[in-house]
Amino acid sequence: MATIQPAALRESNAAAFLDLSVTKFRNLVRRGALPGPVRLADGVERWRADDLRAILSGTAARPSEDFEL
Q1: DSSP helix/strand/coil, 58
Q2: Fewer Cβ in 10 A, N or C end of the chain?
Q3: What distance in Å separates the CA atoms of residue 58 and residue 43, rounded to the nearest whole number?
Q4: Mean pLDDT confidence for 40-54
Q5: Which residues is 8 bridged to in the sheet?
Q6: Burial letters for 34-44: b for 16+ Cβ neighbours within 10 Å, e otherwise?
Q7: If we measure between CA atoms, which residue out of 40, 11, 43, 49 comes closest to residue 27?
């Protein structure tokens, strides 16, 4: 049986996926170092798993200014 890979992650799971605290994750999103969420419905936001994987693999577009992790 195939394992289902999530297409989108809630904030806490997206932060955990990048091994970040939720606070640090929010800060990096707010500063533009990480992509923002996709709004699926009122009060329902998710981060695209492919966007987060692209950051980890180095294939995502980089922000124009330096960000300190």
Answers
A1: coil
A2: N
A3: 30
A4: 94
A5: 48
A6: bbebeeeeeee
A7: 11
